[in-house]
Specification:
Membrane topology: Multi-pass membrane protein
Protein name: ABC transporter permease
Structural class: alpha+beta
Helix content: 40-55%
Family: Belongs to the ABC-4 integral membrane protein family.
Distance between the termini: 39 Å
Subcellular location: Cell membrane
Largest sheet: 6 strands, mixed, barrel
Strand content: 15-25%
Number of helices: 24
InterPro entries: ABC3_permease_C (IPR003838), MacB_PCD (IPR025857), Macrolide_Exporter_MacB (IPR050250)
C-alpha cells in the first residue's frame, strides 16, 4: 500500500513540477529564515548554562521610578541582606567590565586584558575549571591575583602551569605587586564572565560605606524553594528605609512615591531578562519580534502549500472517486495525502539546513557571534516542528480532497464546489495580508531609521578622533598632568587643528551623573544630571550653539571657579525658560555646599543616541576639584589635507611616547556616535531581507496558484475568443478577482501594521509621526505585483489553440 502511495505521489510531483518546486523552494526559504532566527534566540538563552546550581543564583538590580533600574548595588545592601534574611545563603561581587582592559606585567612580558574586581566568594558562585593553584582564598586580600589560562600563557609561555606563587605587577600608579594564587580556564560556552584576571575589589573593606553608593555588581545565592517575589519586597523595603535615612542626613525630603525597588533576576536569564542594561545584555525584544515575523514567513510557506494542494483538487478528484468506489476509506485517503505533504516538507527541511549552513558564516559576521550547528536540541525542536507543520499544512487539503463524493467526481461537476473556491480565496487573502503587513512595517522602519540618521545632533563630529587613555590614575594628578602633556605635544603634529577633552565622550554614554538642586529653593531638584566637566574650548570645538547667555571665558575667574553652562533639557526640568535660567544658582551633587551660577544655555545635543531623550547636563571647566583627574581622553580635530598621514603620526607618537606597551584605542567621533544606530540599522536590514523573502514566497505562490486556476478556465477562454472577445477583456476577466482579493487583504492588514509599528515606535524618544504613505504604497505595490504576476499567465492563456480546447464541444 505504501509503495503504491509513493508511486502516485511522485507521478503527481512530476505532473505538477512547477507547483512542487515552488512549494519546496518556498518552504525551504521560510524554514531557513525561521531556523536562523531561532538559533540566534537559543544562543542568547544558553548564556551561563555552564554554572552549576544556576537556578539558585540571582543578579541583584536596583531602581526607582526616577532614575530607572541599575545593574549595580551598594555594598551594605549585599552584606547586610545576607545576615538579615535567612533565604540568602551567600553573596558575591563581580564587577567585570568586558570593554575595559589593563596591562599586567611579568618581567619584560605583558598581557593587555580584561579583569574582574570581586570578593573571595567569586569562585563559589562561578566555579571555573581550575588549571593550577587553589580557588580557596584565591583573592582573599589585596596582594593576591587569579589569572586566566590565556593570560598565563602570554606571561609565562609553556610553563604557565608552574606560575603559582610568582609575582606580577599591574601598570598603575601604585606599581603594586600581586602573587598568583590560581589559574583558571574561561568557560567555552556562552558567558559574560571572561576576565583575563581577577582581583579583590579595592573598596569592600572600607567602613561606613553608604547604602546609596551603587557601585557593585552583586549576586545572591538563594535557598531552593524561596518565594522570590516576597524576598524582593523585603529587600525593597530595606533599601527604601536606608535611602530615607540618607536623604534626612543630607537635609532632603524623601519621596515615598519614588521608593526603591530591588529586583532579583535569575542568572540563567540575565542575558535577556535583566531589568536594567545588565551586563552585555542582549536585545530580547528585537529577537522575539524577528522570531514572530519568521514564524509568519513559515506560515506563509504553509499557506502556499495548502492553496496549491487544494487548487490541484480538480486533477485528483477522479482519482479519489475511483478509489472510493473500489473500497478505499476516507482515513486511508487522508493518510496518503499527509504522506505526500510530508515528503515535500522533509525535502524542504533538508534543503533548509543546507541553506543555513551556507549562510551561517555571513550571519555570524552580521551578529558578531560564533554560532555553530552543534546543538542537538536544535535538531530535536526542528524535527518536531517539521512533523507538526507537515500535519497541519497537509491536513486541510487532505480533508478537502477526501471529502469528494464519488458520484460528483465521476460525473465531472466537482470543480464548481463553492467550498473549494471559498477556501482558496480565504487562504490567498491571508497570504496577501501577511505580505502587505511586511511591506507597511518595512517602509515605516526605514523611515524611522532615516529620520534618526538625518536628525540634527547638535554637534559637528566629522574629522574628529577620540582617543581613550588606557592607563589611568584616580588617586594622584596623573590624568590631569597626562592630559595637559599629551594635548601640548600632539598639537605640534602637522595636520592637527585643535584638541579638547571631556569626562563624557560623545557616543559612549554618560560617565557621571548626580542630583542638582535650585539654590534658592532646594526642594526643586533635577535627578540624573550629566556631569559635564570639559576643556574651555569644548563648545567651539564641536560648533555647538547657545540659545542664550555665553560660553565660559578664562579671562573671568568666576567662570572657571563657579560658572556653569546648562543645556535646554536641564532648564526645562528646573522650570525655567532660556532667559530666566541666566544668573540662576544651583547646588550640583558633586559639590553639595558650593553654588554654581548659570552663565549660558546650550542647545541640546545628543550624546547617547537619538533613540533616547537628551539628558539634562551641566558643564563646567575641568580644572577644578575631582574632575581634573577624570579626563580620560583626547578629542583631536584633523585638517582635511592629509587625514591618514596625520593619523599615522598620532599613532606613532601614542605607541612610542604617550602609552608605550598599550594599543591605541581610538575612533572617529561621527563613527563612534553612528554605533548607537547599529541596533536599528540591523533591524532595518533584517526586516528588509524578511520583506523580500515574504514577497518572493507570496508571489511564487500566487504565480503557481494563478497558473492552476487559469489552466482550469482555458475552455472558457477559448469560448470567449470564439465569440469575439479581445485579449484585454480576457486578461482583465482573469485577473480582476485576484486584484479584488489584494485590495481586501491590504485593508485588513492596515490595523495590524498600525498597531505593530506604533508599539515599535514607542521605544524612541524622537520618532516620526505615523505616516500615511506606507499604507498607500503597500496597496499600490501589491496591486501592481499581483497584476504583473497574474496577467503574465493570463496573457499566455489568450494564445491558446482554440481547436485543441473546443474540438470535443
Amino acid at each position: 500500500m505504501i509503495k503504491n502511495w509513493l508511486k502516485i505521489a511522485f507521478i503527481n510531483y512530476r505532473k505538477n513540477w512547477l507547483s512542487t518546486m515552488i512549494n519546496i523552494l518556498g518552504l525551504s526559504v521560510g524554514l531557513c529564515v525561521f531556523l536562523l532566527i531561532f538559533i540566534h534566540w537559543q544562543d542568547e538563552k544558553s548564556y551561563e548554562d555552564w554554572i552549576p546550581n544556576k537556578e539558585n543564583i540571582y543578579l541583584v538590580e536596583n531602581g526607582n521610578s526616577s532614575f530607572g533600574t541599575m545593574v549595580v548595588s551598594s555594598y551594605p545592601e549585599l552584606t547586610v541582606s545576607k545576615e538579615k534574611f535567612s533565604e540568602i545563603q551567600d553573596f558575591t561581587i563581580a564587577n567585570s567590565w568586558n570593554g575595559y582592559k589593563v596591562r599586567l606585567m611579568y618581567g619584560n612580558k605583558s598581557a593587555y586584558t580584561t579583569n574582574a574586581r570581586a570578593t573571595d566568594s567569586y569562585f563559589d558562585f562561578f566555579p571555573m575549571e581550575k588549571i593550577a593553584g587553589s580557588f580557596k582564598n584565591a583573592i582573599s586580600d589585596d596582594s593576591k591575583i587569579a589569572i586566566s589560562e590565556e593570560t598565563a600563557k602570554v606571561l609565562f609561555g609553556d610553563e604557565y602551569k608552574d606560575c603559582i606563587g610568582k609575582t606580577l605587577k599591574l601598570d598603575d600608579s601604585e606599581n603594586k605587586s600581586y602573587v598568583v594564587t590560581a589559574v583558571y580556564k574561561i568557560p567555552t560556552g556562552n558567558t559574560v564572565f571572561r576576565p583575563g584576571f581577577i582581583m579583590r575589589h579595592p573598596n569592600i573593606d572600607k567602613q561606613n560605606l553608604e547604602w546609596t553608593n551603587y557601585s557593585y555588581v552583586g549576586y545572591f545565592k538563594i535557598k531552593p524553594g524561596t518565594d522570590i517575589a516576597a524576598l524582593e519586597k523585603k529587600l525593597s523595603e530595606q533599601q527604601s528605609q536606608q535611602e530615607k535615612i540618607s536623604s534626612e542626613k543630607w537635609g532632603e525630603k524623601y519621596d515615598e512615591k519614588n521608593s526603591a525597588k530591588v529586583y532579583l533576576t535569575p542568572i540563567s536569564k540575565m542575558k535577556l531578562d535583566a531589568k536594567s542594561e545588565g551586563i552585555d545584555k542582549g536585545d530580547k525584544k528585537s529577537i522575539m519580534i524577528l522570531l514572530g515575523l519568521s514564524a509568519l514567513i513559515l506560515l506563509l510557506s504553509g499557506i502556499n502549500l495548502i492553496n496549491l494542494k487544494t487548487a490541484q483538487a480538480s486533477q485528483r478528484a477522479k482519482e479519489v472517486g475511483v478509489r472510493k468506489v473500489v473500497g478505499s476509506s476516507k482515513s486511508k485517503l487522508i493518510l496518503q495525502f499527509l504522506l505526500e505533504t510530508f515528503i515535500i516538507c522533509f525535502t524542504a527541511y533538508i534543503l533548509a539546513f543546507a541553506m543555513v549552513e551556507l549562510l551561517l558564516p555571513s550571519y555570524n559576521k552580521f551578529l558578531g557571534k560564533g554560532i555553530k550547528l552543534n546543538d542537538i536540541n536544535l535538531f530535536i525542536y526542528s524535527g518536531l516542528l517539521l512533523i507538526v507543520f507537515s500535519f497541519i499544512s497537509g491536513l486541510i487539503p487532505a480533508l478537502y480532497l477526501s471529502n469528494f463524493k464519488p458520484i460528483n467526481t465521476l460525473k465531472g461537476n466537482f470543480s464548481r464546489s463553492r467550498n473549494g473556491v471559498w477556501l482558496r480565496n480565504s487562504i490567498l487573502t491571508l497570504q496577501l495580508i501577511i505580505s502587505s503587513f511586511f511591506i507597511i512595517c518595512s517602509l515605516i522602519i526605514h523611515s524611522q531609521v532615516k529620520f534618526m540618521m538625518n536628525k540634527d545632533l547638535g554637534f559637528k563630529g566629522d574629522q574628529i578622533v577620540n582617543i581613550q587613555f588606557n592607563k589611568t590614575d584616580w588617586e594622584n594628578d596623573y590624568n590631569y598632568k597626562k592630559y595637559i602633556r599629551l594635548k601640548n605635544e600632539i598639537s605640534k603634529i602637522q595636520g592637527v587643528e585643535d584638541i579638547t577633552g571631556s569626562i563624557n565622550s560623545i557616543g559612549l554614554g554618560m560617565a557621571n551623573a548626580s542630583l542638582v538642586k535650585n539654590a534658592l529653593d532646594t526642594t526643586k531638584t533635577v535627578e540624573n544630571v550629566v556631569t559635564g566637566a570639559i576643556d574651555y574650548n569644548y563648545f567651539r570645538f564641536y560648533k555647538m550653539k547657545f540659545v542664550s547667555g555665553r560660553d565660559m571665558d578664562l579671562r573671568y575667574a568666576s567662570d572657571t571657579i563657579s560658572g556653569t553652562v546648562a543645556n535646554e533639557s536641564f532648564i526645562k526640568k528646573m522650570g525655567w525658560n532660556k532667559d530666566q535660567a541666566l544668573g540662576k544658582k544651583v547646588f550640583p551633587g558633586w559639590e553639595q555646599k558650593k553654588k554654581y551660577k548659570i552663565i549660558g544655555v546650550l542647545k541640546d545635543f545628543h550624546i547617547n543616541g537619538v533613540d533616547k531623550p537628551v539628558e539634562p547636563m551641566l558643564f563646567f571647566n575641568y580644572d577644578r576639584n575631582w574632575a581634573k583627574n577624570n579626563m580620560q581622553n583626547l578629542q583631536i580635530k584633523l585638517s582635511g589635507d592629509d587625514i591618514n598621514g596625520t593619523l599615522e603620526q598620532i599613532k606613532e607618537f601614542w605607541l612610542t611616547k604617550a602609552e608605550p606597551g598599550y594599543p591605541i584605542n581610538y575612533e572617529f567621533v561621527d563613527k563612534q556616535f553612528a554605533k548607537t544606530f547599529e541596533k536599528f540599522q540591523k533591524q532595518q536590514t533584517l526586516f528588509t531581507i524578511l520583506n523580500i523573502v515574504v514577497l518572493v514566497i507570496a508571489l511564487l505562490g500566487l504565480f503557481a496558484l494563478s497558473s492552476l486556476l487559469i489552466e482550469q478556465k482555458l475552455k472558457d477562454v477559448a469560448i470567449k475568443k470564439t465569440l469575439g472577445a479581445d485579449e484585454k477583456m480576457i486578461i482583465w476577466d482573469l485577473t480582476k478577482r485576484f486584484l479584488l482579493i489584494c485590495v481586501i487583504a491590504v485593508f485588513i492588514s492596515i490595523p495590524f501594521g498600525y498597531y505593530a509599528m506604533n508599539e515599535w515606535l514607542k521605544d524612541f524618544s524622537y520618532r516620526i509621526d505615523m505616516p500615511v504613505w506606507p499604507y498607500v504604497l503597500s496597496m499600490i505595490s501589491l496591486l501592481l505585483l499581483t497584476f504583473i504576476v497574474v496577467s503574465f499567465k493570463a496573457y499566455r492563456a489568450t494564445k491558446i489553440n482554440l481547436v485543441k480546447h473546443l474540438k470535443y464541444e
